Write the structure tokens for this entry.
Amino acid sequence: MKKDIIPREYYQGPVGTSPFVYAGYACNNNCKYCFEKDQKFSEKSTEDLKKEIKIIRKKFPYINFMGKEPTLRKDIIDLIKYSNKLKFDQIGITTNGRMFAYPDFAKRILQSGLDQVVVTVAGHNEKMHEFHTQAKGSFMQTLGGIKNIIGYKSPKHSLVLNIMVTKKNISKLEEIVDFYYRIGVREINIGHILPFNKEIVKAKNFIARMKTVVPHLISVAKKYRDKIKFLFVEYPPCIFPKEYRHLSFPCLEESPQKKRFALCQKCSHKEKCNGVHELYINLYGISEFKM
């Protein structure tokens, strides 16, 4: 495998080293920023995944079903029900939300023991979202899915919107947040795109420099203070002014490809931050990160 393409071990590594179970091997989108676009997975059976779930439960009180698109599995509801029997504190799924546009599916999966749904978007209209997903009709279906989740979820369910930031949508970030807030979204993760596939591995015209994103993140954090719960995912604390560093969520998963540098030794956040991914450093260096 080429060095500039992230290895599968980043995503999971040995079973039980993270609370994520990779259950999706197909996808109905073709997102430009997909972490897994170049990965060749051997599809696992229901029983294989139940074994993994059992191992995860021994080490973690929560679990999240991930992958290319886990809701396309015919057994996904059975896997969630199985996880519920193991008494996880929280069971989540990360999805493009399109299957939730089908009311029967949305109702059944929300009633299966699921606690959290994380829906990934890249825009607030058809043109912007589908530029990123490269799938015609995906915006309206994802939007329908989000509305169904809001309509059918109970107070125990958490809906988290996962906005993926690129150079193509960053200038519209406030409009994107406004749009989803108006339809009822109250938890938002804003994630930084990294060059995890061949399509964008050297794409400075697509991958935003973190320091240019930060003013937009601060703007929405100020505007929606106490109204939206934000996390800024894969942004290290040292890219923010001190008063906003608490919103940083730098470690989506452990990664041997994240690098520390000199200022990390004195940083008060070093226990929860492993540094900056080397693929990002290859593009933009480290000069923007400050104590």
Q: What stands out?
A: The chain has one domain: 14-233. Helices lie at 46-59, 76-85, 103-110, 126-133, 138-152, 173-182, 210-223, 278-284. The radius of gyration is 18 Å.
